[in-house]
């Protein structure tokens, strides 16, 4: 009866309601510090401005954080776990796309290096080594950013699963409904360990 915006709601309406009633209602259900998450989602999702893959990754992680926080109150008739699973799936898809982009960038940078070496070999013999073309450095910089995004994604995933596992291990927080979520988190950590091993081997190589 006192809602800022009456239903039915759009995503924009919901985010407005969150912000309007945060201190009086939602701040008592989830940590009040999550208001920054609401503001982040509102800032990016309530605009027509396009954003890059790194911003998409941030928004997905923020969404997962918010859903996870509300899961401590209720599963909302199964809707919340389903939403969480869908967002997780989107995160995995984004990770795969980033992986493909990383491979493409690596191949492009290697090709650029080879082509530059072939083009400058005769000159190197006569006039010494020359500086690489700026485009090569640009490709390398992009490569570094992609590696950073992968490592950041690993950290965010590890942090999220750790929070979930510690909450589930608290006897007062464990419920039968949460069992599948705990198993999902455990399996996710096994995949994460394998991914970290792969990254470490890659760095070593």
TrEMBL record:
InterPro entries per the UniProt record, alphabetical: SWT1_Regulator (IPR052626)
Transmembrane segments: none
Gene Ontology annotations for the cellular component aspect, listed alphabetically: nucleus
Name by which UniProt lists this protein: SWT1 protein
Source species: Smithornis capensis
Lineage: Eukaryota, Metazoa, Chordata, Craniata, Vertebrata
Gene: Swt1
